[in-house]
Amino acid sequence: MLAIIGGSGLSQLANLQITRRQVVRTPYGEPSSPATFGLLGGVEIVFLARHGYGHTLAPHEINYRANVWALRELGAGEVIAVNSVGSIAPHLAPGSLVVPDNIIDYTSGRPLTFFEGADQPVTHVDFTWPFSAAVRAALLASARDAGLAAHDGGVYAATNGPRLESAAEIERLARDGAAMVGMTGMPEAALARELDLPYAMLALAVNWAAGRGDSADKVVLADIATILDEGMVRVRRVIERRAGQLAG
Ligand code: HPA
User: Fold this and answer.
1) Does a cis peptide bond (omega within 30 degrees of 0) precede residue 162?
2) Ligand 1 site residues, Cβ closer than 6 angstroms
3) For residue 57, with 0-12 CB atoms within 10 Å meaning exposed, 13-18 middle and 19 or more buried, which class applies?
4) How confident is the model at residue 9 (pLDDT cuts 50, 70, 90)?
5) How many contiguous H segments (helices) and E segments (strands) does the chain have?
6) Nearest Cα to 140, choosing from 198, 84, 98, 179?
């Protein structure tokens, strides 16, 4: 089953024919929201709102372990994570859709693994390529089929937030090789890998990161809403196309 984790601006899917909602409990507590099941283009999908339905959870407050565990328990076979990001690379102007191909984790203080505690063996999962090649390819193909441009690749820098970055921090991320910055990609991607869930990210650039482009002096959050709304319309189209492909 296709699972979607919706981020800022995507707390629901417009064309989803909702069949049921399910509150899930996990060994790690409750996920951010009840799981919403429904039919999208004829296939069953499950949707989770990362920040909760009322957007009440800040990035560092999200129970990533409960979210990822819940999706696995519910039978997810493919996870599309939707994330809004700040643009660092010049070619990713706000409004761009991107399917990143790697991650650098700058977060701290977040529960980041399922493999801890006396009853768990020490386990080191491979994370060379954090995203599933198959799901990335499917997302890029879906965007193409939908007639939408999506950039193939780029490094996603995960910062802790909730504050935005300083200009100097963004400079450093750029030197590190990051093309975009967001606050929710980690530990989510690593947890999905720990559970062997095929997982990839569809990112929407919603602003120039601090110090870049029109954010040279200040990141004006008020400007983000319009880009987010318009961009999420395209994100929904990509997801619908992916569901359509799975329907055959
Ligand atoms: N920084 C961090 N996270 C973000 C940004 C940003 O500029 N824009 C959207 N998510």
Assistant:
1) yes
2) 84-86, 159, 164-165, 181-183, 206-207, 209, 219
3) middle
4) confident
5) 5, 11
6) 98
Q: Hey, which bits of 50-198 come out as E strands?
A: 78-87, 97-99, 102-105, 151-152, 155-158, 180-182
Residue 245: CB atoms within 10 Å? 15
Best residue for ligand 1 mutational test, from 60, 84, 85, 169 (most atoms within 8 Å of Cβ): 85
- pTM (2 decimals)? 0.97
CATH no. for 2-247: 3.40.50.1580
Q: Extract the tokens encoding 112.
A: 């980041």
- Residue ranges of domains in the chain: 2-247
Burial category of 169 from C-beta neighbours within 10 Å (exposed 0-12, middle 13-18, buried 19 and up): middle
Residue type, 209: A
pLDDT tens per residue across span 74-101: 999 999 999 999 999 999 999 999 999 9
